[in-house]
Design brief:
heterodimer, A: 788 residues, 18 helices, B: five-stranded mixed sheet, 5 helices, 5 strands, 16% strand
Chain lengths: 788, 174
């Protein structure tokens, strides 16, 4: 007799998040709140040059300063592997031989108090010999350009990150990584097209601004290392630290408490090596907390220049897309090679493209290192890819909705050859999106008004490796162990919810412990919107393992076959009317008041998750922007998102993810940009780096959730969290073009830039103020077009 | 590069001061360095880590606390200036009967995700509702303009505050 099939009893209903009570009372512990007995404080001395040979670092005065215990430079790291990097191990813990960007760590001052460390850090001086610098990707790619890295580094050891191999060619050029995807005969198809539209977009450098800055507390003792840090992926950080110290993985314990935001920016190793070597050198726990300026210089978002050329039939069907992506990845690779791979896969959109050629390069420059950010290459690619479609629609005289309807892949249709077929109904999602935007449009007199929307599909979920442990105690309460990090997305709750659902117990008796490499289960990463889907599956399977063990155990105590035992609704039932609680099933088998059942769940690239990607993450969002014709000031009139998530285990959390992601997307489109002026960022702070504020709240917000149970995750779930951000840059650029009559694909669309568009538009008499999503955009043509 | 959480101040005889303040109703005396911020006093000396520091330049609101009932950014407010005053932090919001109606409304409305900005929003909302028990949506967003949340998109925060205002009104006052 089969076990009772668990149906969603709790899952699918919004529940109180289990981390909220701690967070509203101030008792929740974040890494920055932690201390340790005998703890020292570290302060980083940073490069004031973009590219320079280090002639000498003068540390004597700082070392003699009150309270200073050690001043470290790379020379003090002898015996250690002095670099890190999970794809390309190019990243110096402390600069070796030369500095590669303004802000690079050169020395580390470790003192009894924060004040003493800060004071002494001012006393460290560095003699430099300037080297010619490459401050833009364009400069870096010129023949004979100075090299950011004179040597290559080999692989970081984990090649599963990349579709191909890490193609670091640092010894010959500044190209950190190249990626491409190609099929068909693009040149012939373009020559043959009724219309060819070329679009060039400039996506700026961004800062994720997770509000808790990067920080770590490390303690190296007796050949073991304990690190608490703001890491999204503690297991990946463990791997880097093990290589640095030459220790077995089991001697490195990395714990990620609640994170004060991540959004991808806390993926992979950041400040942990510095805190760890400081503890190794001093024999005491060391805490290192960066400020926001230092955090900005630690990791930014890859800027990109994307050129998209598409050929269309007269009725708007895509014949070919040809795209070139050039990403400025800064001085160290970090995760940019993967961001590039993803940008290549994501830039051409969820469309049938019979002939495709996408080529991308991730380029080293003497600027701050770039890495992952929510959306992972999708926002960069979509800006060019989606506006290119809108421009074509305008020229062909068809609506932006129709041009997409004619090209979107349908359910179960293949988008990338050999990859998972589309596990979503994009045409149906698009209809919902467009209908809501049309219904909600409220242009006001005296404002220019434009609607823009875009569609993206991301190969999400990352490489499927997840494990979970579920422990059933003698009182029927449940402990879930997972290596997935709670960074605000609500994973602590949703993983508990799955366990409660699967074991038929109340959420209140389930406790979830996360992200401790020595005490919780292995999890590859917390990113790519994977947790609900992949970690969720692991928890679901661990619960199934618990149930299977309970059936075996009860078959002994009941004296029947295991197949005759059912487990459900928090009870274990035998064939002759026996009913015991889960806890009693445990204690009866152990024969005392003690014992426990441990279930293990594993997800790997096999079975349901054999096909890559594990799921397609859909971005289906749009907005309406109202523009003040006098000032260029932009008001977000409405924001609409369609969350195609398969099944929403906790709907309120899904809506929160979509609204939060879309809001970051609005920031990216309208406000945010890190500006380099020469070697320095001129706005490395939150006064001059402008993020969305409460007063930017759209007049109307419609966050729809679509549930078709078409995902591979628990109950048909798919991931959420990045999707709603990805289309926003393109949606905003299109809305501005419709409002002003002119295209600008140089983000952010600041009031000044928008005002210039209005002026240019008035000067050449372009029609403006087109508001409709279903009808042809009248005026704005492409940046560059040719008719066949 | 510039960028210190603390600017160096020459050590000297007047580098610290004795202060007395009430924090969440508890009177205490401490000798504090003159350059110590209120946030550092609360977090590092008193262990009240509910108050968070983020931008460190009075722009994000995460470190907001109430000093004599007025909101201040504790990242730039000197501990020495708290002498003789009453400080209220997030740890002082919940009464003996559990969380306050504002904290409860934040939970119900999903007005937080990572929670790092939440203490600052709670303190600001406390100040807002005390002075303006029935704020309009526009008054709420204006008042909170100096508080950044990177997770929620703000709407649930505004809704939580509106809910508290509505329920206080239906109960006939604060």
């Amino acid at each position: 007799m089969a076990e009772t099939e668990p149906g969603p009893r709790l899952a699918g209903h919004s529940v109180r998040r289990t981390d909220f009570a701690e967070k509203v009372t101030g008792t929740a512990k974040y890494c920055v709140d932690l201390t340790a007995e005998g703890m020292l404080h570290a302060r980083v001395v940073r490069s004031e040059r973009p590219h320079a040979r280090i002639l000498a670092v003068h540390t004597e005065q700082a070392a003699a300063s009150p309270g200073v215990v050690a001043v470290l430079t790379s020379a003090d790291l002898e015996g250690l592997f002095p670099r890190f990097g999970h794809i390309i191990p190019d990243h110096c813990i402390l600069a070796i031989g030369k500095v590669r960007y303004y802000g690079e760590p050169v020395a580390l001052v470790v003192a009894e108090t924060l004040f003493q460390a800060a004071d002494a850090a001012e006393l460290v001086t560095v003699d430099y010999e300037d080297l010619p610098a490459v401050l833009t990707a364009e400069q870096a790619l010129r023949a004979g350009a100075p090299l950011v890295h004179e040597r290559s580094y080999g692989s970081g050891g984990d090649t599963s990150f990349l579709d191909g191999e890490a193609t670091g060619t640092g010894s010959r050029s500044n190209v950190a990584h190249e990626a491409s995807v190609e099929w068909g005969d693009v040149d012939a198809a373009l020559a043959d097209s009724a219309l060819v539209v070329q679009t060039e977009a400039l996506f700026p450098m961004l800062y994720a601004y997770a509000m808790e800055p990067y920080n770590a507390l490390a303690s190296y003792r007796d050949g073991s290392l304990l690190v608490h840090s703001t890491a999204q992926h503690p297991f990946m950080v463990r791997d880097d630290l093990a290589r640095i110290f030459g220790l077995p993985l089991s001697r490195i314990r990395v714990i990620a408490p609640y994170l004060g935001g991540g959004y991808g920016s806390k993926s992979y190793t950041k400040v942990e090596p510095m805190a760890a070597v400081a503890s190794w050198a001093t024999g005491r726990p060391v805490k290192l907390v960066l400020n926001v300026e230092e955090s900005i210089y630690t990791t930014r978002v890859d800027s990109a220049r994307v050129r998209m050329r598409s050929g269309f039939d007269a009725d708007g069907r895509l014949r070919a897309r040809d795209c070139d992506i050039e990403m400025d990845s800064g001085a160290y690779a970090d995760n940019s090679p993967l961001v590039l791979d993803k940008a290549v896969n994501r830039c051409f959109g969820p469309y049938r493209v019979p002939n495709l050629r996408i080529r991308g390069r991730s380029v080293y420059t003497n600027t701050s290192p770039a890495s992952s950010y929510r959306g992972f290459g999708a926002p960069q690619g979509a800006l060019a890819g989606e506006t290119n479609l809108d421009q074509a629609a305008g020229l062909l005289g068809i609506s932006p909705a129709d041009i997409r309807r004619r090209n979107l892949v349908g359910p179960k249709e293949e988008l990338l050859p050999g990859k998972r077929p589309m596990d979503a109904d994009l045409p149906a999602d698009l209809d919902l999106l467009v209908a809501s935007l049309q219904e909600g449009a409220r242009p006001r007199a005296g404002e220019l008004y434009g609607i823009g929307f875009a569609c993206t599909a991301s190969d999400a979920g990352a490489f499927p490796v997840s494990t979970a442990t579920v422990r059933l105690a003698t009182d029927g309460s449940v402990t879930v162990l997972s290596g997935s990090t709670e960074m605000g997305q609500g994973s602590k709750t949703v993983l508990g919810l799955i366990a409660a659902e699967e074991l038929g117990v109340d959420l209140a008796v389930v406790q979830v412990f996360q992200s401790d490499t020595s005490a919780t289960s292995y999890e590859r990463t917390t990113g790519a919107s994977r947790t609900t889907t992949l970690t969720g599956l692991a928890v679901q399977r661990a619960c199934a393992d618990v149930r299977a063990k309970l059936r075996e155990m009860a078959s002994e105590t009941f004296g029947c076959e295991a197949a005759e035992v059912t487990v459900g609704e928090g009870r274990v039932r035998g064939p002759d009317g026996q009913v015991v609680s889960l806890g009693t099933a445990v204690t009866s088998w152990f024969g005392s008041k003690s014992g426990e059942v441990t279930g293990v769940g594993i997800v790997r690239k096999s079975g349901e998750t054999a096909s890559m990607p594990p799921f397609w993450e859909i971005g289906m969002a749009g907005l309406a922007l109202a523009v003040d014709p006098e000032t260029g000031q932009v008001r977000v009139d409405q924001l609409v998102t369609v969350g195609d998530v398969g099944f929403a285990l906790n709907p309120q959390a899904v809506e929160g993810q979509d609204l939060g992601a879309a809001t970051q997307g609005i920031g990216m489109a309208l406000f945010e940009e890190l500006v380099y002026d020469g070697p320095q960022i001129v706005n490395p702070n939150i006064v001059e780096y402008r993020v969305p504020k409460s007063t930017d709240l759209p007049r109307r917000i419609d966050t729809m959730i679509v549930q078709r149970a078409d995902g591979v995750g628990p109950y048909g779930a798919k991931g959420s969290g990045e999707g709603a951000l990805n289309p926003m840059s393109a949606a905003a650029a299109t809305a501005i073009a419709r409002a002003t009559g002119r295209w600008s694909l140089r983000l952010p669309l600041t009031p000044e830039r928008v005002w210039r568009l209005i002026r240019e538009s008035a000067a050449d008499g372009t029609a403006a103020g087109v508001t409709d999503a279903e009808h042809t955009a009248a005026g704005p043509g492409a940046t560059d077009t040719e008719r066949g | 590069m510039a960028a210190g959480r603390e600017e160096p101040v020459p050590a000297g005889p007047a580098s610290s001061l004795r202060i007395t303040a009430a924090v969440n109703g508890t009177r205490l005396s401490r000798t504090v360095p003159v350059r110590m911020t209120l946030a550092q006093l609360l977090r590092d000396e008193l262990g009240l880590t509910g108050t968070k520091v983020s931008c460190d330049m009075e722009a994000c609101g995460a470190c907001s606390v109430l000093v004599d009932s007025e909101p201040v950014s504790s990242c730039t407010f000197l501990a020495a200036d708290a002498d003789g005053r009453e400080v209220l932090t997030v740890e002082g919001l919940a009464g003996t009967g559990g969380v306050s109606d504002l904290q409860e409304a934040f939970m119900q409305n999903y007005a937080l995700q990572c929670g790092f900005c939440t203490p600052g929003f709670l303190m600001m909302a406390t100040a807002l509702l005390r002075d303006n028990p029935y704020p309009s949506q526009e008054e709420i967003t204006e008042f909170l303009e100096g508080n950044i949340c990177r997770c929620t998109g703000y709407r649930p925060i505004v809704e939580a505050i509106e809910q508290v205002a509505r329920s206080r009104r239906s109960r006939g006052g604060d």
